[in-house]
């Protein structure tokens, strides 16, 4: 997100590798994505513990998800401004070092303000990493393999959900939530070393600056994508942030089973990532509509079946499948709208998604504290279904640039 103005971009030189980078380089960026996703959503499985230890409400603890989203939304476009001519390899390493510092601060915190300070640092890392790292697939593997490289990078999101968050929850339940954040600190430091070892030098490409963000926002297809992102991400994180207390209090599921259920949710998400890659190659619009409808429908049915754990758990897996499809579905929609301005598109995606994550977690927390847990779940159901309807009703000719 380097908002390099004309003066800054003029110094940037095109950087096209003579040969494609090794797949280990692509995988290293995906590992970075894994570390970020694990850290961002680690509080979800540990919310009751954190709230009790700090003497706050679950809604207040939900600020641990809200705040990084808000900060990342602000930082995403401005990363382009600050990055300037910096080598993207060095920039990613700095951002992941910030991730390690953020997790360490949380693990040592004894009050909510200190916890939130660490999460602010995390938000800066998230916004910067996804703006730069999310657009590196086509640069690391030019040509036809660019889509595969992008899918591998974004698979870090699914793996983080599949393994990182459930394992963190399991570790937190066994040894305390602080130990879970301590382990996340160590993971982030390992990722920094991996990136330094295998990622090649990546100079900024010409014409990738803050000014491109404004031009990208004028594209009708991008505007439709932003509406979908707003509705889906607000709905997703207005509900998912509070899924652990919901399962405990309304579905009657024991605390010992939560890690396994979240693992299943993540595994379904990993499958969704693979399904979305196949589906988007056939119909980007159809994939996005199906993703939102699957998420909204499963959440609505899950709320209605709250007293029946045997129904709630399979529906939660369907929800996970839809959520796993989401990054590829939305990214495919936006990248197809402005294929020559990938960093700017990534900045727009990250900013809008993270703002919506923060808004969703905040709104869900307010609804939870005022009206109870089912209201937060209904937020997710109605918002995601509204997104499915909105995208389905758009005519292709109205998307012409």
TrEMBL record:
GO terms for cellular component: plasma membrane. PROSITE patterns: MFS. Pfam families: MFS_1. Residues 25-398 form the Major facilitator superfamily (MFS) profile domain. It is a multi-pass membrane protein. One of its GO terms (molecular function) is transmembrane transporter activity. Its main location: membrane. It comes from the Bacteria. InterPro entries: MFS, MFS_dom, MFS_Efflux_Transporters, MFS_trans_sf. The chain crosses the membrane at residues 20-42, 62-84, 91-110, 116-137, 149-171, 177-202, 222-243, 255-276, 288-306, 312-335, 347-368, 374-394. Keywords: Cell membrane, Membrane, Transmembrane, Transmembrane helix. It is found in: Cell membrane. PANTHER family: CHLORAMPHENICOL EFFLUX PUMP RV0191, PURINE EFFLUX PUMP PBUE. This is MFS transporter. It comes from Duganella aquatilis.
């Amino acid at each position: 997100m380097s908002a390099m103005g004309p003066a800054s971009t003029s110094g940037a030189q095109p950087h096209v590798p003579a040969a494609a980078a090794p797949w280990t380089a692509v995988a290293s960026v995906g590992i970075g994505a894994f570390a970020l996703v694990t850290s961002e959503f680690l509080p979800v499985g540990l919310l009751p513990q954190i709230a009790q230890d700090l003497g706050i409400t679950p809604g207040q603890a939900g600020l641990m998800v809200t705040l990084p989203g808000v900060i990342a939304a602000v930082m995403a476009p401005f990363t382009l401004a600050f990055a300037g001519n910096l080598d993207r390899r060095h920039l990613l390493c700095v951002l992941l070092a910030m991730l390690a510092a953020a997790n360490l601060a949380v693990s040592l915190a004894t009050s909510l303000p200190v916890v939130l300070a660490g999460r602010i640092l995390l938000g800066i890392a998230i916004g910067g990493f996804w703006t730069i790292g999310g657009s590196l697939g086509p640069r690391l593997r030019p040509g036809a393999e660019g889509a595969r490289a992008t899918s591998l990078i974004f698979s870090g999101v699914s793996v983080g959900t599949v393994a990182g968050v459930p394992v963190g929850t399991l570790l937190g339940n066994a040894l305390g939530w602080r130990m879970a954040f301590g382990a996340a600190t160590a993971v982030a430091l390992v990722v920094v070393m991996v990136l330094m070892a295998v990622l090649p030098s990546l100079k900024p490409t010409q014409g990738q600056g803050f000014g491109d963000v404004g031009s990208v926002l004028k594209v009708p297809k991008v505007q439709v994508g932003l509406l979908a992102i707003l509705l889906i991400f607000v709905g997703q994180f207005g509900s998912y942030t509070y899924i652990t207390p919901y399962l405990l209090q309304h579905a009657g599921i024991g605390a010992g089973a939560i890690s396994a259920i979240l693992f299943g949710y993540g595994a379904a998400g990993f499958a969704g990532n693979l399904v979305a890659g196949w589906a988007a190659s056939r119909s980007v619009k159809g994939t996005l509509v199906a993703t939102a409808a699957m998420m909204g429908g499963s959440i609505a049915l899950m709320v209605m079946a709250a007293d029946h754990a045997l129904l709630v758990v399979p529906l939660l897996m369907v929800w996970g499948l839809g959520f796993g499809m989401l990054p590829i579905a939305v990214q495919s929609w936006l990248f197809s709208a402005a294929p020559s301005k990938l960093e700017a598109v990534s900045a727009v995606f990250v900013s809008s998604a993270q703002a919506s994550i923060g808004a969703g977690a905040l709104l869900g927390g307010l609804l939870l504290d005022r009206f109870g847990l089912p209201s937060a779940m209904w937020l997710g159901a109605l918002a995601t279904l509204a997104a499915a309807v909105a995208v389905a009703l758009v005519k292709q000719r109205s998307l012409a640039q």
